[in-house]
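Protocol step 4 of 5: obtain the predicted structure for the target chain.
Materials: sequence only (see below). No template structures provided, no constraints applied. The aim of this step is simply to have a reference model before the mutagenesis design in step 5. Sequence pasted as it appears in the construct record:
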Amino acid sequence: VAYMVLFGMVLPCIERRLARHYQQTPLSQAHDEYANRLPLACATRELDAARPDHNGIKAGVLWDLLQHYKSFLLDRNMHYVVANIICPLTEERRSSFAAMWGGGVVGHFVSHSWGTCFVEFVETIRRHAEVAAGRAWREEV
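Step 4 output (structure tokens):
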């Protein structure tokens, strides 16, 4: 009987600890929300390694990524974005970020430093896309 009383007292504590341990963090919740926005047809698409010029993503995809995760990014760089956002998003699909969005013909090649603030990087891409395509920048560039 004493064991049952002790077990009855300890069980709620264990349940609370387990619930806290397995509770989603705000970042993991943001991953789930973002993953639900992915186009289903592109979720398993493989990119063509022989045609890297067809494995790009549009400026609008980067902009949407930035807007979705902005509260987590602050002034963080690409090292943080890849480790904490891109890898968790692509890990389950075993795919690249570009493949998750279906890839696309590359109109502009962008080289950048991973040490640069990600927000500034995406802002620069957005400004270029607006100059290149005007109001249709999200879909065109």
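Step 4 remarks: The chain has a mean pLDDT of 84. The first helix runs from residue 2 to 22.
Proceed to step 5.
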